[in-house]
């Protein structure tokens, strides 16, 4: 940079030799000169005002001043024993220098005040004598010299700061003086505690700070800059030089960033004193010029790795020549500091890079947000690439080859030594001294510089990880970076982790998710590095002095692992070329790396102890299994046809971790099952392949084992690669290994950690939902058994351990068990599995098991005390029990997954009833009037219709029931039949059976006397009982003769009437004497079916009270099994509708947005979904939408639609549907909820995916005014899904009746069944308080980013207006942006997807399987996004004390209806009510 400029080194050398500091007293003997100095300086010192008042100087002429200055010049060179004299000299000169101040001291001579710059230059030059080191002085005298030097430096610095008189010549003199004293103090080899060692840091700081002042007052000439650069090269063996250089560079960089990138750019925070280094008034252009010159001041820092270069100065040569044993220059002890100096230099450069990237100076490079306005990577590399790339190669193969090449060239030259004067570049051609590592001391071998090398490669990683979307990086930079990384990632035979490897992993978290060209060539190297860091619990360190956080290192390694997990199945047989090898012998294919990645993941999960790291690994594990399953389903067609014998059980993919318990996870049994399944299904699969992919599922059972051979449409190379990994890394093997490992660690290690337990249970739930055709029933049974054991262990922990977190894990475990049983219903056919699950359900509901051990006598439930672990646990156990009894094996029902309740209500049933007039427009009130309503167990409403439906042609006692319970609405029709349906239609006689011929012969009846009693009755001795029946005489005496006569008259009249009737019948046409055919009686259509049903099912068995039992004689009357509801109230229909609007499942909504590059406003983002903009979308976005859920028409949908007003309603009339279809035209991506929405549901939850448009804002503004849902304004039921308290009620009354159940062990009396055995103790009294929201309803956003950096500017607050469901009107607070969860998805050029998660801070904010930074394949993105959204919502519910499960809210609503509409009927009145016909 200064090659064309002359150096001022000669002038500095002259100063060092004392040419300008030579006094005439030097020509006299030392003693004479000393006496002159003492007498003169003592007199001058008395006038300074130090010991007495200052007086004006008596020196009035220039000659007088010059003579005194000549004396003082000699005095400054006196031996240090004359400390007082030297001190006086320093005091005099320091006072005289105030001539440059705005207010000079009174003691300054007049000539100096008149020409201050001239005399100041002479004084500055004379000060040089003070700084010359004295030989042989004691430590005490050296300290005294240092004190005086400090005084001089302080004076000079102060003068430079406040003087307004200094001209350019004086500035140059001052700078040259500072360079000279630094030269004389710092250029020689360091000697501990000499004056140079003590003053080193001070003289450098003064030099740099005064130099910065000069840049503002009198910018140094290029010659001065060149001299400074050459001088600094001579001082590089001093630690302080690099430290001060870093300090000044950071201060200048902070100012440079301020004006280069504006105030919005994150400010670089330096120490307070460093912030004052830059003088006030330095212009922006001056800052830029000074910054660049200072940056290049010490030359290339990599020279610090070469002691031969650093020790080429004449001072080191002189030391080597005078050394007793003839040592080499590079063997001086002070050079042992070079590795530390090199490290400090690299840290300084790294700090500057961090500043440009807006990284905190203490960051480890992982998970830190970079500034959006940061410079491009090329810009930073243009400045630092030369130093960083060279430093990264230090000690590597390339560096060693270059050294050998230099040594070979040097050996061809004649032995000579050439020194360029003052440039510090001595060319030694002796190969032994230049390049022979044997001549270096052990402390200077190249491996000692590894810390600096690690800092350099880490800095490079940070630069390349800062690449923005679409940013181009020069290929030469990429190539050099990849070469450096490959050199640094080489693993030694000892398989130890060195500093370089750790630094790469710590700062390369984003390297594989940035679309860097050709980055995958480094994949084998990174996998080898991960195999060292992750699988082992105790990391092998190369040196114990390495300082870094092992947890952070593992976290960074896991981030890298999560970004490369999907690569093998994405690129398959694509080869990975070796950078250094031209042959293809070392060439890998991506699919070959899959087994190694799986082993790293499994082993890392086994030994990981940090909760966050475990959470990330669990998400990655489910990603791997899900990706493998989906890959086999889509790419391989679920197992291709072919020869089953072609499977190769190649175990080469197995790594060396034989001791790992996971080596048995893919057991021989599993492998044999795979092969057996292949052999058994090979022919069948081959025969069905031609019929299309859909036929495979029809011909093969869901639990069969498919063929794993290679189908014809796959490449031969891929077939060969797949054979090696199939038996170990196919979907089934991964499923087995994952299930085994997670269940094992959940029981052994993770049960005490809330987040890890939840993540593990989420993963197990995800595994349960995978459709693996060769699922092993035994593995699934074992998983359910483990989960049940986990619940038992958690429930059995001592009371102090029972907390909200513990109960959250138990609830999550019950939900996980439900997922396994729903997906694998055959498990309930296993007696052991069924008993295990039901025992756990019993434990959850009652708090104990009936049989603690198999040999114990079972304890019946009426003997047990009801003590569940908490109400939340009991609710979860009840939910599981209902799922087992109602849903396992039957979901989805005929209604589809959109509803677990019947789609029939009273109005729908009455439309099919014979008594209903078809033309009449019936209302729900009219339909309800046809039903009778009863409540049983205080939680189930029975609606009974006694009229048969119109499609029933067989008149029987028929009753139609609508059962509304905690778990939904169900419709049943029952008939009382004397024969089963299979036999009731058979006629046992002909239609016209003919009559047989009558027999006219009359039988003779023998006449006999009728006897009322046996013959021997009179012989029996009568007893008391015989006399209990009174005789006729006794009756006459008791009732009188008149009564007896009246009775006899009635009997006689009756006898006459009977005889007349018989006579009339004989003469009539219908008599038997006439040949009249029999006619069956008319069919009876009048039945009291409701009475029959209630009686047959035991609802009319009233309890009787025992008056002798005090417990029954006192207190409330016994609980009736049946409560009659009064349906005449006009509000009854509305309350029933509110109950029906309370879904029996949880419901959530995810809002999907598309963000084009650079968009930051909500209007722009919402406008992307307009019809005219849809053609410009990434085609992968539409594909992802289709995988999130099922497109449904809102008008025909009976589940959750994303909007409260039209969810859970029956299908509308055709007129309503046509009206909605006319509103707007359907389009592919129109899922805004107006007509269509994306929907998904399982047995426990519903989720809607809404893509907002401008329609949503209009809809939300209408609903906020109460216009759109005015008719459903009282529909509080489904609105407050987060509040644990009664959510139904009328205004303040509903809130007053609500009861918060946030106490973990508090049991609610409203939950008590009618016949619970031994009720637990509960709090008495009606304590009421308003329902409180622990947190606002969750909002989950899915945002597709074209440019990844746009996630920083996503307008979260503004888009909330487009995401209202109608439930917000009834909550106590609206959702806030801080409460929103955002899943950002960015499409990479490779076709993969990068994930970024953003959410509120909290213990349970982030759920699996998606992890921040994960890279997905498009095959699995919809599934994993959906699972993550569901798990986020579940975690928020678990974390909310006031949350009520849906079935509890429905039960409370039923109880509210009972309280409002129950009829207090006696037993007789109830029976009479049954015989009343409905209207």
Sheet-strand content, in percent, reads 5-15%
Radius of gyration from CA coordinates: 48 Å
Structural class: alpha+beta
Give the termini distance in whole angstroms. 105 Å
Approximately how much helix is present in the residues? Answer: 40-55%
Overall outline: elongated
Largest sheet: 8 strands, mixed
Number of helices: 54
**Low-confidence blocks of residues:** 414-435, 638-727, 1111-1117, 1213-1226, 1265-1335
For the largest beta sheet, what order do the strands appear in spatially? 11-12-13-10-14-15-16-17
Write down the overall mean pLDDT: 77
Number of strands: 18
What keyword list fits this structure?
54 helices, 46% helix
Explain this structure to me?
The chain is of the alpha+beta class. Helix content is about 45%, strand content about 5%. It contains 54 helices and 18 strands. A hairpin with a 2-residue loop joins β7 (about 960-965) and β8 (about 970-975). The longest helix has 27 residues, at about 1040-1065.
Briefly summarize what is shown:
It contains 54 helices and 18 strands.
Spell out the blueprint of helices and strands:
Layout: H1 9-17, H2 30-45, H3 62-75, H4 83-96, H5 110-114, H6 116-126, H7 128-131, H8 139-162, H9 168-186, H10 195-217, H11 222-234, H12 239-261, H13 272-275, H14 284-295, H15 307-310, H16 314-322, H17 338-357, H18 377-392, H19 397-411, E1 417-420, E2 425-428, H20 431-434, H21 450-465, H22 475-488, H23 499-507, H24 523-533, H25 550-564, H26 567-571, E3 575-576, E4 588-589, H27 594-607, H28 611-634, H29 668-689, H30 694-699, H31 716-729, H32 731-748, H33 754-768, H34 777-795, H35 804-823, H36 831-846, H37 871-887, H38 906-910, H39 924-929, E5 932-936, E6 940-945, E7 958-965, E8 968-975, H40 981-984, H41 1032-1039, H42 1041-1067, H43 1089-1096, H44 1110-1113, E9 1123-1125, H45 1132-1141, E10 1146-1155, H46 1162-1167, H47 1179-1188, E11 1190-1193, H48 1214-1221, E12 1236-1241, E13 1245-1250, H49 1254-1264, H50 1291-1297, E14 1339-1345, H51 1356-1359, E15 1380-1387, E16 1393-1398, E17 1415-1416, H52 1421-1439, H53 1446-1461, E18 1462-1463, H54 1467-1474
Parallel strand pairs: 10-13, 10-14, 14-15
Antiparallel strand pairs: 1-2, 3-4, 5-6, 5-9, 6-7, 7-8, 9-18, 11-12, 12-13, 15-16, 16-17
């Amino acid at each position: 940079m200064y090659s064309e400029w002359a150096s001022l080194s000669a002038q500095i050398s002259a100063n060092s030799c004392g040419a300008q500091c030579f006094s005439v007293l030097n020509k006299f003997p030392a003693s004479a000169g000393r006496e002159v100095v003492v007498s003169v300086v003592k007199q001058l010192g008395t006038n300074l005002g130090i010991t007495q008042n200052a007086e004006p100087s008596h020196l009035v002429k220039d000659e007088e001043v010059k003579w005194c200055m000549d004396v003082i010049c000699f005095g400054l060179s006196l031996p240090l024993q004359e400390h007082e004299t030297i001190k006086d000299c320093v005091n005099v000169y320091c006072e005289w220098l105030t001539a440059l101040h705005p207010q000079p001291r009174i003691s300054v001579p007049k000539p100096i005040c008149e020409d201050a710059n001239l005399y100041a230059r002479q004084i500055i030059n004379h000060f040089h004598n003070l700084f010359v080191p004295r030989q042989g002085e004691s430590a005490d005298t050296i300290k005294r010299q240092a004190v005086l030097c400090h005084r001089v430096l302080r004076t000079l610095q102060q003068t430079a700061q406040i003087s307004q008189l200094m001209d350019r010549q004086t500035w140059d003199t001052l700078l040259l003086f500072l360079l000279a004293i630094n030269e004389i103090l710092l250029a020689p080899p360091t000697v501990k505690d000499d004056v140079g060692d003590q003053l080193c840091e001070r003289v450098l700081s003064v030099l740099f700070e005064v130099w910065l002042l000069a840049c503002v007052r009198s910018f140094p000439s290029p010659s001065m800059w060149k001299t400074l650069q050459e001088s600094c090269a001579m001082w590089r063996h001093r630690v302080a030089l690099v430290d001060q250089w870093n300090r000044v560079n950071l201060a200048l960089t902070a100012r440079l960033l301020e004006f280069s990138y504006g105030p919005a750019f994150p400010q670089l925070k330096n120490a307070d004193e460093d912030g004052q280094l830059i003088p006030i008034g330095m212009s922006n252009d001056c800052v830029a010029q000074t910054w660049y010159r200072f940056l290049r001041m010490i030359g290339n820092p990599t020279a610090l790795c070469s002691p031969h270069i650093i020790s080429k100065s004449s001072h080191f040569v002189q030391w080597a020549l005078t050394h007793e044993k003839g040592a080499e220059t590079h063997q001086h002890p002070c050079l042992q500091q070079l590795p530390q100096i090199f490290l400090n230099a690299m840290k300084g450069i790294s700090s500057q890079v961090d500043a440009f990237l807006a990284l905190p100076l203490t960051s480890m490079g992982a998970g830190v947000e970079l500034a959006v306005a940061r410079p491009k990577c090329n810009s930073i590399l243009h400045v630092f690439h030369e130093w960083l790339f060279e430093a990264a190669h230090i000690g590597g193969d390339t560096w060693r080859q270059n050294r050998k090449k230099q040594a070979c060239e040097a050996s061809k030259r004649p032995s000579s030594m050439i020194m360029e004067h003052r440039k510090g570049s001595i060319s030694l051609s002796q190969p032994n001294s230049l390049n022979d590592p044997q001549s270096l001391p052990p402390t200077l071998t190249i491996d000692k510089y590894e810390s600096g090398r690690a800092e350099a490669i880490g800095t490079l990683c940070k630069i390349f990880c800062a690449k923005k979307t679409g940013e181009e990086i020069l290929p030469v930079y990429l190539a050099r970076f990849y070469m450096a990384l490959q050199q640094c990632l080489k693993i030694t035979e000892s398989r130890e982790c060195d500093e370089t490897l750790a630094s790469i992993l710590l700062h390369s978290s984003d390297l594989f998710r940035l679309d860097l060209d050709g980055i995958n060539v480094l994949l084998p190297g990174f996998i080898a590095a991960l195999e060292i860091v992750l699988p082992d619990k105790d990391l092998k360190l190369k040196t114990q002095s390495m300082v870094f956080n092992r947890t952070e290192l593992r976290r960074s390694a896991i981030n890298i692992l999560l970004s490369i997990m999907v690569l093998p199945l994405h690129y398959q047989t694509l080869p990975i070329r070796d950078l250094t090898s031209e042959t293809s012998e070392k060439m890998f294919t991506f699919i070959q790396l899959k087994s190694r990645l799986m082993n790293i993941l499994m082993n890392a999960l086994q030994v990981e102890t940090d909760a966050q790291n475990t959470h990330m690994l669990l998400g990655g594990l489910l990603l791997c299994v899900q990706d493998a399953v989906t890959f086999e389903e889509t790419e391989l067609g679920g197992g291709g046809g072919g020869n089953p014998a072609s499977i190769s059980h190649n175990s080469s993919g197995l790594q060396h971790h034989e001791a790992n318990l996971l080596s048995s996870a893919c057991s021989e049994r599993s492998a044999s099952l795979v092969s057996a399944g292949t052999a058994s299904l090979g022919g069948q699969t081959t025969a069905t392949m031609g019929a299309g992919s859909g036929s495979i599922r029809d011909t093969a059972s869901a639990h069969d084992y498919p063929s794993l051979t290679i189908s014809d449409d796959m490449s031969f190379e891929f077939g060969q690669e797949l054979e090696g990994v199939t038996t170990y890394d196919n979907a089934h093997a991964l499923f087995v290994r994952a299930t085994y490992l997670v269940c094992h660690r959940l029981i052994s290690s993770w049960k005490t950690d809330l987040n890890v337990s939840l993540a593990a249970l989420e993963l197990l739930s995800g595994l349960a939902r995978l459709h693996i055709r060769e699922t092993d029933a035994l593995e699934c049974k074992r998983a359910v058994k483990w989960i049940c054991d986990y619940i038992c262990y958690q429930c059995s922990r001592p009371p102090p351990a029972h907390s909200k977190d513990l109960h959250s894990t138990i609830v999550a475990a019950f939900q996980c068990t439900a997922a396994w049983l729903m997906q694998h219903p055959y498990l309930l056919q296993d007696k052991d599995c069924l008993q295990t699950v039901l025992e756990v359900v019993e434990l959850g509901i009652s708090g104990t098991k009936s049989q603690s051990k198999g040999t114990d006598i079972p304890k019946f439930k009426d003997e047990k005390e009801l003590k569940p672990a908490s109400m939340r646990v009991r609710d979860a156990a009840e939910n599981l029990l209902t799922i087992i009894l109602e849903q396992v094996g039957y979901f989805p029902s005929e209604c589809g997954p959109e509803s677990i309740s019947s789609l029939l209500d009273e109005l729908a049933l009455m439309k099919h009833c014979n008594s209903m007039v078809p033309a009449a427009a019936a209302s729900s009130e009219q339909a309800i009037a046809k039903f009778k309503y009863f409540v049983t167990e205080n939680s189930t409403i029975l609606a009974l219709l006694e009229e048969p439906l119109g499609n029933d042609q067989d008149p029987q006692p028929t009753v139609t029931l609508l059962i509304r319970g905690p778990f939904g609405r169900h419709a049943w029709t029952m008939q009382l039949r004397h024969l089963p349906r299979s036999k009731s239609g058979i006629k046992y006689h002909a239609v016209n059976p003919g009559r047989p011929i009558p027999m006219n012969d009359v039988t003779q009846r023998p006449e006999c006397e009728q006897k009322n009693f046996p013959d021997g009755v009179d012989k029996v001795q009568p007893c008391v009982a015989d006399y209990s029946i009174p005789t006729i005489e006794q009756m006459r005496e008791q009732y009188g003769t008149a009564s007896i006569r009246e009775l006899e008259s009635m009997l006689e009249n009756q006898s006459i009437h009977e005889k007349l009737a018989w006579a009339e019948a004989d003469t009539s046409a219908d008599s038997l004497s006439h040949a009249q055919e029999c006619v069956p009686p008319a069919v009876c259509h009048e039945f009291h079916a409701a009475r029959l049903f209630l009686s047959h099912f035991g609802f009319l068995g009233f309890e009787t009270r025992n008056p002798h039992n005090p417990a029954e004689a006192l207190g409330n009357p016994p609980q009736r099994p049946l409560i009659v509801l009064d349906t005449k109230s006009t509000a009854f229909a509305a309350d029933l509708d509110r109950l029906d609007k309370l879904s029996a499942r949880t419901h959530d909504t995810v809002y999907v947005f598309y963000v084009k590059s650079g968009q930051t406003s909500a209007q722009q983002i919402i406008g992307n979904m307009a019809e005219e903009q849809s053609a410009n979308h990434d085609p992968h976005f539409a594909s992802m939408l289709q995988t999130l859920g099922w497109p449904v028409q809102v008008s025909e949908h009976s589940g959750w639609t994303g909007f409260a007003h039209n969810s859970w309603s029956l299908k509308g009339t055709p007129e309503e549907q046509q009206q909605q279809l006319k509103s707007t035209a359907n389009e592919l991506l129109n899922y805004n909820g107006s007509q269509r929405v994306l929907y998904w549901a399982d047995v426990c939850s519903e989720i809607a995916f809404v893509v907002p448009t401008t329609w949503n804002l209009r809809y939300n503004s209408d609903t906020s005014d109460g216009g759109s849902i005015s008719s459903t304004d009282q529909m509080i039921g489904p609105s407050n899904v987060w509040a644990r308290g009664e959510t139904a009620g009328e205004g303040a009354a509903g809130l007053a009746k609500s009861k918060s159940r946030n106490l973990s062990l508090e049991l609610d009396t409203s939950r008590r069944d009618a016949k619970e055995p031994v009720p637990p103790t509960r709090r008495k009294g009606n304590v009421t308080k308003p329902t409180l929201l622990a947190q606002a309803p969750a909002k989950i956003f899915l945002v597709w980013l074209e440019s990844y950096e746009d996630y920083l500017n996503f307008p979260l607050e503004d888009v909330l207006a487009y995401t209202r469901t109608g439930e917000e009107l009834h909550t106590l607070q609206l959702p806030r942006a801080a409460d929103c969860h955002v899943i950002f998805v960015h499409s990479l050029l490779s076709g993969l997807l990068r994930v970024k998660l953003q959410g509120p801070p909290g213990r349970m904010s982030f759920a699996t399987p998606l992890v921040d930074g994960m890279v997905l394949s498009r095959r699995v993105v919809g599934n994993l996004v959906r699972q993550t959204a569901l798990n986020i919502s579940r975690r928020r519910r678990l974390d909310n004390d006031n949350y009520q499960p849906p079935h509890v809210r429905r039960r409370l609503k039923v109880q509210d209806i009972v309280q409002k509409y129950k009829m207090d009927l006696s037993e007789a009145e109830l029976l009479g009510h049954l015989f009343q016909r409905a209207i």
